[in-house]
Amino acid sequence: MHPRSHGLSAVTERAGLLFGADYNPEQWPEESWPEDIRLMQQAGINLVTLGVFSWARLQPTEGTWDFGWLDRILALLDEGNIKVCLATPTASPPPWLGHRYPSTLPTDAAGTTLWYGSRNQFSPSSAVYRSAARQVTAALAERYGQHPAVVMWHVGNELGQISYDDETAAAFRTWLLRRYGSLEHLNSAWGTTFWSQGYSTWEEILPPRTAPYLHNPTQVLDFKRFTSESLLGLFTAERDIIRQYSPAVPVTTNLMGFFRGADYFSFAGETDLVGNNWYTDPGQPQTWELGALTHDLCRGLAGGTPWLLMESAASAVNWRPHNSAKEPGALRVDSFSALARGSDGICFFQFRQSAFGAERFHSAVVPLAGEDTRLFREVAELGSQLQDLRLLAGTPAPSRIAVLFDWNSWWAAEAPDCPTDRLGVLDQLQAYYRPLLRRGLAAEVVHPSTPLDRFDLVLVPSLFLLTEDHAGALTSWVHRGGTAVVGPFTGVADSNGHLRQGRFPSVLAPMLGVSGEEWRPLAEGIGLDFAAPPDGVSADAPAGIQATVWSEDLRLDGPGASAAATFASGALAGKPAVVRNSHGSGTAWYAGCDLPGPALGHIVGEALAAARISSPVAGTLPDDVELATRGGHHFLLNHGAEPRTVTLTGQSVDVLTGDACGPRLALEPYGALVLKDSPDPLENGN
């Protein structure tokens, strides 16, 4: 069994799907705690995350401890049959630590100290901070490692801190020495002959602090790698202490989806289960699309096994400039999207809305107005429905489609010295993923090192940095019969961020049957002429399509290559814009330009046909409707404010009501249907 699957299943085998919230009893009078537990039971909550920001309460001064309050609330929760994910409070040190030990405080790139009075006020490289964090972790683990209520451990919170202080600089140099072994190798890897940057001693090397102009791009890339590994080191240090006292209880931390500050593929390999925070933005109508992609990333991080949504919002958050509330029904639709894409639970931040502090306007399971509120009733209804769906716990949400993604490439591709800032990596991922959503298809977002044999189609929207080994593995997989679609500006750089010499993308040239000589960001749009689709593909070639941001000067190389689209005008008129190539038993497409939605839908549709992946919908779903399948359950979710209809080929059963359905189904605004063994949808209308 996959180790992370075992970590989560150790909890869900007893509890079923998890339903919970962050709980901060230290913010409330102790007399109110029994009432909190009553409301948890009423809402169907079976898990709370406890103690995330309680360091100052647990250790009021350096030499004193107070565990009595935590003993009492754990006893009450255990008596109420509510399990606990116990957190180490190391994300927010108490003021005494920063006051007595200023070296623990982080500095920004300009050298400004970031003071206590908020949260995250620590430098990951600080030896004093690390010692204090180990001490509080050990105290918690020793005291509660065998507590019957504790079924999961939560290290820190949203690990993402960064610092440029002198202690960090020394740790960075140590990391570089391990990586390169000598200054000679470092100077070569960093290309320090450029701009007279050659280093003669290790002491000269600094983090990329504020400088007059552009930094050395490899120095910046290595500092991001170092920072990610430092954050991971914080996690593993606390995890290992916990395992000494609590070896049978899974340990995790809450990731943040497509967060730039840490490489989560490395984190996923060290956690017992993959946990993630996702906050839909109700003010952005298509925010659910990024949510679906994020959930598919989590499933990829978990190796295709279930994961856990550790934080979401019941309604509005407090940290955006303008914080829209969720419409009635949206809470359930957002939650079902995560459930359908592999989450074994739905958890909220937080249980009771704070009356004070910086998050006092953040929504909660129990609003300030109490239980007689629409929001609490919606949470309780969701809790009841999760009980009806509890057998989904542990079931997979398999996909035959992979999306390749790499944090190292993301960091390198968006350096300020690149040809454009308009070809964003995450934008490209969403663009290539959207045609799958419109067809009701899921994917797994995986690292380029992932074995691909369980997939039939691989999308590579943006891998600027691509190693020869990873390129060779993808090429061999296509040669054996796989189908791939590769986006622009891919395979350009090696692991140091150095540009490969010769015609690009050299490491993928045999697979793609194309080579290029110049990247040409566009000042104005260029029309594209699409060739007729290959035999067996019924979709018409798109017309009236333009590339607006990016173009590449390409030529066909190889007998199996043909132009799926050409540039219609300008210096590239008649030259290939999109190339289709037969490679061994497989087929690959390369887009040498940015493609708008209809064009990407067409190319991905051709690739799906080549991979023999059939869509569960004929045509496409409405823009605000999601279809996802898990464990024989088909989730039809309307993320919009307008009613939609879906027509099925036959009868089905609504799992939540037991009613026979179909073939034509109506989705109310923010409506959700869960169907068991439903026929594939055939037709969708507005």
TrEMBL record:
Keywords linked to the UniProt accession: Glycosidase, Hydrolase
Organism: Pseudarthrobacter polychromogenes
Family annotation (Gene3D superfamilies): 3.40.50.880, Glycosidases (3.20.20.80), Golgi alpha-mannosidase II (2.60.40.1180)
Protein family per UniProt: Belongs to the glycosyl hydrolase 42 family.
Name of the molecule in the record: Beta-galactosidase
Catalytic activity reported: Hydrolysis of terminal non-reducing beta-D-galactose residues in beta-D-galactosides
Beta-galactosidase C-terminal domain ranges (all copies): 625-676
Domain Beta-galactosidase trimerisation: 400-613
Name of one Pfam family that matches: Glyco_hydro_42M
EC numbers for this chain: 3.2.1.23
